[in-house]
Write a structure and sequence with these properties.
This protein is of the alpha+beta class. About 40% of the residues lie in helices and about 30% in strands. A five-stranded antiparallel sheet has the order 1-2-3-5-4. A hairpin with a 5-residue loop joins strand 4 and strand 5.
């Protein structure tokens, strides 16, 4: 994906940021997997990152296509620097939500 067709959007959920990107050509959103996990688990960045690493392994072992469909893009980190981060489309985001037991899952899906 080329950067000129992408627009970075910052979404807030219960006061937490979920970094997302809008692809104008595909007319599709992509979300930071770690940010989604952070909202669901109410964890800080490091714990969310570790959870995502564990979840990717678990889903890969189950044969889920989510892991193979995950791409990386540079997104602005909390320290202001741009770093590569795993992104998922809306289907991937809902697969993550399904995989994590969380009281926020239902609220997340209705926002």
């Amino acid at each position: 994906m080329s950067q000129n067709k992408l627009e970075t959007i910052s979404n807030l959920f219960e006061g937490k940021e979920i970094r997302s990107i809008w692809d104008k050509d595909k007319e599709e959103y992509y979300f930071s997997a770690i940010d989604v996990i952070g909202v669901l688990t109410e964890s800080d960045y490091q714990k969310s990152r570790n959870y995502w690493k564990w979840l990717k392994g678990k889903l890969n072992d189950e044969g889920s296509q989510l892991v193979s469909n995950t791409n990386q893009l540079k997104m602005k980190a909390h320290d202001g620097k741009y770093r590569m981060t795993d992104i998922v489309d809306i289907v991937g985001m809902f697969r993550i939500i399904e995989s994590i037991p969380s009281k926020n899952a239902e609220v997340f899906c209705t926002k």
